[in-house]
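To the team - iron/sulfur cluster complex, inputs and output below.
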Amino acid sequence: MLLSRTPQPNSLAPAGGEGWGEGAPAQEPLAIYIHWPFCRSKCPYCDFNSHVREGVDWARWTRALVTDLDHQAALAPDRAVASIFFGGGTPSLMMPETVAALVARVKALWPVAPDLEVTLEANPNSAEAERFAGFAAAGINRLSLGIQALDPEALRFLGRGHDREEAIAAIRLARASFARYSFDLIYARPGQTVAAWRDELKRAIAEAAEHLSLYQLTIEEGTPFFGLHAAGKLKTPDEALARALYDVTQEVCSSHGLPSYEISNHARAGAECKHNLVYWRGEEYAGIGPGAHGRLDIDGVRHAIATEKRPEAWLMRVETSGHGVVTDDLLNSEERADEFLLMGLRLAEGIDPKRYTALSGRALDPGRIAILREEGAIAVDADGRLRVTQSGFPVLDAVVADLAA
Ligand SMILES: C[S@@+](CC[C@H](N)C(=O)[O-])C[C@H]1O[C@@H](n2cnc3c(N)ncnc32)[C@H](O)[C@@H]1O
Ligand code: SF4
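Output:
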């Protein structure tokens, strides 16, 4: 059993909705993702688009990211922005000036929601924590910290550059510096027992405010962990133990007021990450920076847009052609509906089957729904929403494949 991570990514205000004031947006709000592809060192489990480089040219990178942003604004002009997310890599290695320039540019290009959510992913190293005040001044109002573990041995095993004390100090500084913060932990690590994880999670919850991301360790192809795993030198929990670890995660978080609203994300009511909800609800987002993905509706057709992945090639492309886009695929109704199902069923709120029908032109198979309900993997609420149950989540991929067939 493996719970997949978010591919990259409070409900958004409805179009023309309350709070936007005069000149409310004509279309659904837009989310902006900005990718910073550099890290201090590469963690042995990580297959994100992240690279170690000496001497990044800040001014050049800032100019290029602004240029890429301008291009996306030309593709999606009539929108209002509800969230910005700086992801990585390690965006806390960015200069606060770069972050400030990008936030200001978003505000100059589009109207923004009065409660604009601006998240930045940060590593808890003390050098980066020194920049928290600069990030807050740049407009970041939500910090997402990659804590990964509160167990010293696990932090070493995961190849992290911080220890437990630094992690806790960074969480406390985040609490003092930002209106909102969240942190990530990786569980289902080799040798981890249910009792040890329960204690670690309780310790984490004592430091958490409103949001936690809890990912099961996945062994990604091409990483050092993949090689060790293939050679039998790294053993992940078997299915029964992984299931027990997942169940205790749900139990402890729910009993502390942090139920899951997505397969790996937990929040107090109203404290969900607005930005990531856009991905899971199939709404529109623009992707800026190397290897960023976007979904934009242009002339009524959904575009799946991706930028050049390699940092230096992306930089050159932006400087020579004014944007980093390398693929722009039109999604047909079937592809759009499948994506809606795949992403939406990750959410505790599930999906509205009528929207699936509207996107694909056909209804979900009632026979398959009946079988999955009998098996206890899905439930259909009184309002007709279809959602995966607690016991269905560990086999989510199979449930989605069955419904989409
Ligand atoms: C872009 S990464 C991290 C941001 C930041 N660079 C850091 O490491 O603190 C987002 C999150 O994905 C999770 N993650 C990355 N690789 C993973 C893997 N192989 N298994 C489970 N979680 C993983 C980690 O919790 C990580 O914080
Ligand atoms: S987990 Fe974070 S710090 Fe580690 S390599 Fe991946 S993006 Fe970089």
